[in-house]
Amino acid sequence: MRFDEAYSGKVFIMSGNDYEKAQAVIYGMPMDWTVSFRPGSRFGPGRIREASIGLEEYSPYMDKHLEEVSYFDAGDIPLPFGNPQRSLDEIRKYVTKLNADGKFPLGLGGEHLVTWPVIQAMHEVYPDMAVIHIDAHADLREEYEGEELSHSTPVRKICGLLGAENVYSFGIRSGMREEFQFAKESGMHMTKYDVADPLEKALPQLAGRKVYVTIDIDVLDPAFAPGTGTAEAGGITSKELLKAIQLISESEVKVIGADLVEVAPAYDHSEKTAIAASKFVREMLLGWVK
């Protein structure tokens, strides 16, 4: 199940070699075909893996060690360059396979549109699922410059599939007036600017439910994550996002899968974005893979 032909040989720290025995599978979705500002997130999965070498395997936040979780890094899905629809089809097909094999899917983006086919695949297995969306951007457009397949549209598509009332967005600080009006009128749950405190208040509403979590690295302020395609001033700190991941871990929701997207390494020569992202992935593995 490893994509040997397109894979560099680098894996996330302490990744196992046995797909069959793994509880979780890390996989890359190296697509940035629809970005509207700065491309380069297709290189994000590789840099997150490379940055992970600097991590401690033990998390003081979770009081757990990575040896306590069995996971396999499958590498990056080989996606047809410049072809959004075929790329989305390949992602959906792969996640469908992970579901059939009983794996916890943990995806690395790539632009945020890659979350859409993952949700489609997850919904086939979990029709009553909900989504926690942590992001600077609403991503509620129906199209961007006439293109329905855009990194600005995944959450709107998800609302259409799951029902807007099953979508919980946090940290939002950018979008069209119409996107905020849709959020208000559709019944979805949107919190602007902050993440940890409103998330803590919302989690009891999701107790006992199966939830997919999607995190866009640009929810962080550019001071903490300059390496992203559409940076937005006024964001949260790395500490707050770590707290949010921990809150989900300690809650009564059942996380069924997750992704972390929009790391674009070319805009961050300090590598602080990839370093932070790798730490978040560690916490997601330790906290959400049961």
TrEMBL record:
Give GO MF terms, alphabetically.
agmatinase activity; metal ion binding
Task: Name its co-factor(s).
Answer: Mn(2+)
Whether DNA repair counts among this entry's keywords is no
Q: For this protein, what is the EC number?
A: 3.5.3.11
Q: Which InterPro entries match?
A: Agmatinase-rel, Ureohydrolase, Ureohydrolase_dom_sf, Ureohydrolase_Mn_BS
Question: What residues bind Mn(2+), as annotated?
Answer: H112, D135, H137, D139, D216, D218
Catalyzed reactions = agmatine + H2O = urea + putrescine
Keyword Metal-binding belongs to the record: yes
State the family it belongs to.
Belongs to the arginase family. Agmatinase subfamily.
Name of the protein described by the UniProt record:
Agmatinase
> What species was this sequence derived from?
Oceanobacillus picturae
Source organism phylogeny: Bacteria, Bacillati, Bacillota, Bacilli, Bacillales
Gene this protein is translated from: speB
